[in-house]
């Protein structure tokens, strides 16, 4: 994304975000899911809005708590199909921020948890569920449609 004053923006900066996720069947009832995310901010301005900066987005970590000029996350989720409609899963994720300034800093955090999904529409493969996630600072409950990623 490109933000420029000449395009009507308040500041000049660029952001980049790359996402990837994949699922690997391990056995008839077991599935391993992997997801990764990379975000970067390129700007020479110091007065950008806090929501402009990339942040670690993991279940169990509050949004915008850990920000930097570069952010990378990696998540894994192991799921077990109890029946055709019920799935339980455990997950773990790790994220790292890097701040480019006079004093370059970085921070690494992780989160983990468990959850379940119920398939409400077999024809469309739609799942509803809940996750309970933990990190060093927070405990959170998530209600979601689809997978946890």
CATH topology: Porin
Overall structural domain count: 1
**Number of separate strands:** 8
Q: Which strand-content bin applies to the residues?
A: over 45%
CATH architecture: Beta Barrel
Low-confidence stretches: none
Identify the CATH homologous superfamily.
membrane protein fhac: a member of the omp85/tpsb transporter family
Order of helices and strands: EEEEEEEE
Question: Main sheet, how many strands, which sense, barrel?
Answer: 8 strands, antiparallel
Helix content range = under 10%
Q: Helix tally? A: 0
CATH first level: Mainly Beta
For the termini, the CA-CA separation is 22 Å
| Spatial ordering of strands, largest sheet | 1-2-3-4-5-6-7-8
3D shape: elongated
User: Can you give the mean pLDDT?
Assistant: 90
Protein name: Bacterial surface antigen (D15) domain-containing protein
Organism: Agarivorans aestuarii
Task: Please characterize this protein's 3D structure.
This protein has 149 residues and is an all-beta fold. The chain has a single domain (17-145), classed as membrane protein fhac: a member of the omp85/tpsb transporter family (Porin, Beta Barrel). It contains no helices and 8 strands. It has strands spanning 2-3, 13-25, 30-42, 70-81, 86-99, 105-121, 126-135, 139-145. The chain has an 8-stranded antiparallel beta sheet with strand order 1-2-3-4-5-6-7-8, with no helix packed on it. β2 (13-25) and β3 (30-42) form a beta hairpin. The mean pLDDT is 90. It comes from Agarivorans aestuarii. This is Bacterial surface antigen (D15) domain-containing protein.
């Amino acid at each position: 994304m490109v933000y420029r004053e000449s395009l009507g923006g308040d500041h000049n900066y660029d952001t980049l975000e790359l996402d990837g996720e994949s699922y690997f069947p391990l056995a008839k009832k077991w599935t391993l899911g992997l997801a990764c995310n990379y975000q970067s901010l390129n700007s020479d301005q110091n007065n950008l809005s806090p929501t402009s900066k990339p942040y670690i987005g993991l279940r169990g970590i509050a949004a915008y708590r850990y920000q930097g000029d570069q952010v990378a996350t990696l998540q894994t989720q192991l799921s077990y199909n109890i029946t055709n409609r019920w799935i339980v899963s455990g997950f773990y994720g790790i994220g790292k921020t890097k701040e480019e300034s006079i004093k370059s800093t970085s921070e690494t955090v992780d989160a983990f948890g468990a959850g379940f999904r119920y398939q409400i529409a077999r024809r469309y493969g739609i799942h509803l569920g809940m996750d309970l996630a933990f990190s060093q600072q927070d405990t959170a409950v998530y209600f979601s449609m689809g997978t946890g990623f």
